[in-house]
Amino acid sequence: MRKTAFRSGIAIAAALLGTAGLAPLGAHAQAWPTQAITIVVPFPAGGTSDNLARGLGQKLGERFGQPVIIENKPGAGTMIGTEQVARAKPDGYTVGVVANSFTINPSLHDNLRYDSRKDFVPVSYLAYTPHMLVAHPDAPAKTLGDLVAYAKQHPGALSFASFGTGTSPHLAIEMLKAQAGIDVVHVPYKGQAPALNDLLGGHVPYMFANVPDVLPHVKSGKLVAVALANDQRIDSAKDVATFKELGFGDFASNSWFGLVAPAGTPDPVAGKLAEALQDALGQADIKARLAEQGFVPVGTTPAQFKEYLDSEFKKAESLVKASGATAN
Fold first, then answer.
1. Does 19 reside within a domain?
2. Mean per-residue pLDDT for 16-33?
3. Residue 93 sits in the same domain as residue 168
4. Phi and psi dihedrals of 27, rounded to 5?
5. Which of 237, 268, 293 lies at the terminal end of a domain, its last residue?
6. Which residues are within 8 A (CB) of 171 and not within 5 positions of it... i.e. 6 or more apart?
7. What is the pLDDT of residues 265-308, one digit of tens each?
8. pTM of this prediction?
9. Domain boundary among 195, 211, 237
């Protein structure tokens, strides 16, 4: 009888200890957030992802009643800001914006200081903007058909700028070369700003770029829209035909943006944040603002974003290998 009572006491004590261990986690998740949230953006202020983060940050602040701080940490192809998020305390108060480079960098660099697959918790796929192929007004060809014809007649004569080797605009160039059977020159720049400046200056005739970054220049006549790398036209550029319409059925390229947290962040916290982001992205004013800028809002659960990231890792690995790009 005593042995039975003793064993029962051990079982009860163990159960209580287990519950005690879980209690802080549950209490934290239920109470979160009780202080400011920092969103690390691994790009300069004023860019595409920065504008997206600030708009959503305002909505999150209103919903949670806590300040949302946008911290820009550009550099090293987004690796500086992303590493900061990986090293942050996994309590939900430091999260980070990620983009195509998040899934491309593991195939491009052998010396990453973090593991893109293991050091982060996916939170939500936020939005994407299709890439638009644009040309300087003095470019030798200003329609997709003319460009392909000219490139075939003059192999290696046309040059395309990109934000850098292995970036999504560079991979779009490689896709165009493969699908059209043409030979063009890739001119990598250290970032979007210098590439766009040289395009506007006529130093390079073509570039794949994010719609929000080039649409004002297209509307002003400083650039010519050649084609949109999306499966359908978008409201902010209804008169720009897609590659699909112009005979490239499966040609799609975009810049996508999501939110991640440090590995170890409680699932309930990530879920709560994802739910708030989904709600924000569904609000009429945010949807209208993003559509005007050339974004397509998405909003997913953490599980859905993880599935998307897994597919993007595989896609990037294949494209980087095919292109021969390396940053090492």
1. no
2. 59
3. no
4. -65, -40
5. 237
6. 104, 253, 316, 319, 320, 323, 325
7. 999 999 999 999 999 999 999 999 898 888 899 999 999 999 99
8. 0.83
9. 237
Q: Tell me if 125 sits within 8 A of 305, measured CB to CB.
A: yes
Q: Which domain holds residue 169?
A: 130-237
Per the prediction, the chain carries an average pLDDT of 90
Q: CA–CA separation, 42 vs 97, rounded Å?
A: 7
Residue 46 gets the label, from left (phi > 0), alpha (psi -120 to 50) or beta, of left
**Which CATH number goes with the domain that contains 216?**
3.40.190.10
Rounded CA separation 326/189 (Å):
14
What pLDDT score was predicted for residue 303? 98
Any domain includes 243: no
Can you give the pLDDT at residue 30?
73
